[in-house]
Design a protein that fits this description.
59% strand, mainly beta, single chain, 75 residues, four-stranded antiparallel β-sheet
Amino acid sequence: MRQLIGKIPIKYLNVTEEIYFSELVRCQHCQTTVPMGIEVVTVRKQGKSKKVIKHGWYCRAHGADFATRAQAGVG
């Protein structure tokens, strides 16, 4: 299950970071598996389709910066 928290626009044309709450995530920083974590997907829009550029998973402690920026709508 994934729940969208928000989107962060990036300075490059048509590139955004989509921030999700996800189940069973292994953090890329501390290498621990947590039941509820943050998934960051960097996406480039090309017309009607989307292309995934980068994927990242974080525990809530390491992904808190992404979550607060997404909820505030700050790029």
